[in-house]
Design brief:
alpha/beta; 17 strands; 7-stranded mixed beta sheet; 2 domains; Aspartate Aminotransferase, domain 2
């Protein structure tokens, strides 16, 4: 439950920090510096901060490489042959899945293409894909090329659902009705879990059920949802999902991605998947024989050897998530985002509106500020004053008060800097 008795004072923000049981987590991360102080880092929905343990873990792998050479695949403290196994159980708790339904592998758009090859199998009149209008460009490009691969015109094969005129976010009922109207022409519903621009969290359970009711698969790009909002992919009966790890999962630029495949699908060998050496049955991996034999888990969608050095930061961050827990993070997220929203509403001299849903259940730790004019000037002024936020064309400043390492004082400092920007 969000506190409705907030106060716009530094003393109040600091008092909230003293009560915050997660406050000390910020000591586990490196903050960029501005004039000798920690910057107000509100860009976790684009790139999370570096866990301080990463340097030690990288050195450990370098030492093992130097000591063992190729034998490090089996003798390293975290053997490289099975390195990807370090992640599945911890990731399963973050996305609400069984351990065998998730794997850390590849990168976001690679995984999206691999999953679409398996789940987008158009036939007859069932060939259309539904997605939200204004999805992140990589999703748009991936889906466009998937339908072109089968010879369809994207303007016909892709159904984009846009907000009503004058609104910024989608209504659940409108999404469900669009799915019902598409009916048996629909092959796949492929939404972002959280829209990158508005910060709207979609009701994945309702969308999945509606997709299944018309005979379509339901899959999601969870880039802005994973590590942000508690998910229940297995219980919601989601068919497939993928994500990156460099945003809320704090695993470094270009960090390893992850994917989810519902157990009813990964155990079905009739579902086509592109074969890679690392997706083959591990017991037969070195037999070098013909004939792909997929693992009986989501790992069968892997392509190549685990990129160990690309995964080290992921390991460090997931340790922090394991100690903290998604429920505790979610509770703080609702309070912290609510506090920042309260503070922003005290500002009346700048021409912006918050287009992220006001209902905490329909958003994560993101607020998108839509400026009527001069938004880029405001963004540049924030940057000059030690705020690291995120600009999205044409006119939105995105801010992400991440509960894992941001404080209530960070929220107040952001407000105070924004309040003192002259936009006359």
């Amino acid at each position: 439950m969000v506190n409705n008795n907030f106060e716009a004072t530094l003393e109040y923000a600091q008092a909230l920090d003293k009560e915050d049981t997660l406050y000390n987590n910020r000591e586990r991360f490196h903050f960029p510096q501005h004039n000798g102080k920690d910057a107000v880092y509100m860009c976790g929905n684009s790139l999370g901060l570096q866990p301080k343990s990463v340097g030690h873990l990288i050195q450990q792998e370098l030492d093992d490489w130097a000591k063992y050479g190729v034998e490090g695949h089996f003798k390293a403290r975290n053997p490289w042959f099975s390195y990807h196994h370090l992640f599945s159980e911890r990731l399963s708790k973050i996305v609400g899945a069984n351990k065998d339904e998730v794997v850390a592998t590849n990168t976001l758009t690679v995984n999206l293409h691999l999953l679409m090859v398996s789940f987008y199998r158009p036939k007859g009149k069932r060939y259309k894909i539904m997605m939200e209008a204004g999805a992140f460009p990589s999703d748009q490009y991936a889906i466009e090329t998937q339908v072109r691969m089968y010879g369809y015109d994207p303007d016909d094969a892709i159904i984009e659902i846009a907000p009503k005129e004058g609104e910024h976010t989608l209504n659940d009922d409108d999404i469900i009705k669009a799915i019902e109207d598409a009916g048996d022409t629909l092959a796949v519903v492929m939404f972002g879990g959280v829209n990158y621009y508005t910060g709207q969290f979609f009701n994945l359970e309702k969308i999945t059920k509606a997709a299944h009711d018309v005979g379509a698969y339901a899959g999601y790009d969870l880039a802005h949802a994973v590590g942000n909002i508690p998910l229940q992919l297995h219980n919601w009966k989601v068919d497939f999902a993928c994500w990156c790890s460099y945003k809320y999962l704090n695993s470094g630029p270009g960090g390893v991605g992850g994917l989810f495949v519902n157990e009813k699908h990964y155990s079905n060998k009739e579902i086509f998947r592109l074969a890679g050496w690392w997706g083959n049955d591990e017991k037969e991996r070195f037999l070098m024989k013909k004939g792909f034999e997929p693992q009986n888990n989501a790992g069968s969608w892997q392509m190549s050897n685990a990129p160990v050095f690309n995964m080290i930061a992921h390991n460090a961050s997931l340790d922090i998530f394991e100690k903290t827990g998604m429920q505790a993070l979610r509770e703080k997220s609702e309070q912290l985002t609510g506090y920042l929203e309260f503070l922003l509403k005290q500002i009346d001299h700048l021409s912006f509106e918050i287009i992220t849903p006001a209902d905490p259940a329909k958003r994560g730790c993101q607020l998108s500020l839509l400026f009527a004019d001069r938004g880029k000037e405001v963004f540049d002024a924030l940057t000059d004053n030690g705020v690291i936020a995120d600009w999205r064309e044409p006119n939105v400043i995105r801010i992400a008060p991440v509960p894992l390492y941001n404080s209530y004082e960070d929220a107040y400092r952001f407000y105070e800097i924004l309040k003192n920007i002259d936009n006359a």
